[in-house]
Write a structure and sequence with these properties.
The chain is mostly beta strands. The chain has helices spanning 2-19, 120-123, 136-143; strands at residues 34-48, 60-74, 79-88, 91-102, 107-115, 149-157, 162-170, 196-204, 209-220, 231-245, 250-263, 277-295, 301-314, 323-334, 339-350, 358-368. The chain is 8% helix and 53% strand.
């Protein structure tokens, strides 16, 4: 923890040094043609009406959801780097640490820690999410280590139109999951000798429509002289994005996806029955309209947004009434394109007869600098 804090403080010092060029002479990076520094602050409040005030758990309060600092360097016309660190709830973590080599015809190689090409919503920046948080479907894939950030390599092609693709080979152990030779196999279900293979095709049909297909195979479990629960977690996930300009000052965006997968019963140490399957679905949309001019009396308020999303999850096909539905909706206010206040009502509706519905309200202030 102390070393991570030192890294964060050091990076913050570098960022402040670079941005000081606004007030003094320009600072030239030692090994790059140029540097770019940015960041993000997300301040969040969550209220859950179904937790009693005298419960052992708190029912409302504030948190720093994200506090991030990003530094990007352009070494040459063909080589770029990105380094991102985050402090969440006072715990510093490394998010991105990657180098990218651009080849001819828009092909590329990436090396380091970054998001693997799985699930459209996960690949969307947290600063540009349609709702305050990603869906429970996206969280389920992260929990299975089939998406989000991993350490590995990637090859792909990313034209601005037509067919994009990416193939990724990584540890499959999440952020900071080190699996190089000589490391002890952990009791964790993901720190082992296994690797994660992910791939994605994304067809940009036009400015208004995109269609994607992702797949993942994570080789999990631990094999030693005394134990062997090795198996796989697999999933394939079609998704789409539709983006419509409804007027000169408004737009309608809709994104959705589904994931169908299986967790090996050998990995779960099940001796009978079938390997559990899971099904995930989410669709989210938002309508955004720009005002005629920014309101000086309301902090430069210049846009209004309404967003809603529906999620369905079946985590285990072998468990009756395992399904859960989620409904989220609410408005957002923009104070320039980089400042947004979001208000989301969230309903969690499990199918299990003994489980209660949950209603909570999440509010978030998002500042991108």
């Amino acid at each position: 923890m102390r070393s991570a804090a030192k890294v964060f403080c050091g990076a913050a010092f570098v960022a402040l040094s670079v941005t000081s060029q606004v007030f003094s002479q320009e600072i030239k990076p030692a090994n790059s043609k140029s540097w770019e520094v940015s960041g993000n602050i997300q301040f969040q409040h969550l209220y859950n009406k179904d937790i009693a005030s005298d419960s052992s758990r708190s029912n409302e309060g504030f948190r720093i959801r994200r506090g991030r600092l990003v530094a990007k360097g352009k070494l040459t016309d063909y080589v770029e780097t990105s380094f991102q660190i985050e402090v969440r709830d006072n715990s510093p973590r490394l998010k991105d640490a990657e180098g990218k080599i651009k080849l001819a015809s828009e092909f590329f190689f990436r090396f380091g820690q970054f998001k693997v090409p799985m699930w459209r919503e996960e690949l969307r920046s947290s600063t540009r999410l349609m709702l305050a948080e990603r869906s429970a479907a996206a969280d389920s894939l992260v929990g299975l280590n089939l998406s989000a950030r991993h350490i590995g390599i990637e090859f792909g092609r990313a034209p601005k139109a037509g067919l994009q693709f990416a193939f990724n080979f990584s540890n499959g152990a999440g952020e900071g999951g080190r699996e190089d030779a000589g490391q002890s196999k952990s009791s964790s279900r993901f720190i082992n000798n296994g690797k994660l293979l992910t791939g994605r095709l994304n067809w940009i049909a036009s400015k208004t429509f995109q269609l994607g297909l992702s797949g993942a195979v994570n080789n999990v479990g631990v094999k030693t002289l005394t134990t062997d629960n090795t198996g796989t977690i697999t999933a394939f996930a079609p998704d789409f994005g539709a983006y419509f300009t409804t007027s000169t000052k408004s737009q309608l965006d809709i994104e959705g996806g589904a994931a169908f997968g299986k967790v090996s019963k050998d990995f779960l140490r099940l001796t009978t029955g079938k390997s559990p399957r899971f099904t995930l679905f989410d669709v989210t949309g938002r309508w955004l309209t720009q005002m005629n001019s920014a309101s000086a009396g309301f902090g430069g308020l210049d846009a209004f947004e309404l967003a809603a999303g529906f999620t369905y999850i079946e985590r285990n096909s072998e468990v009756p009434d395992d399904e859960v539905k989620f409904l989220r909706f609410g408005p957002a206010l923009y104070f320039g394109k980089n400042t947004r206040l979001q208000f989301n009502a969230e309903m969690i509706m499990p199918n299990a007869p003994a489980a209660d519905n949950v209603f909570q309200i999440r509010s978030q202030a998002n500042f991108v600098f």
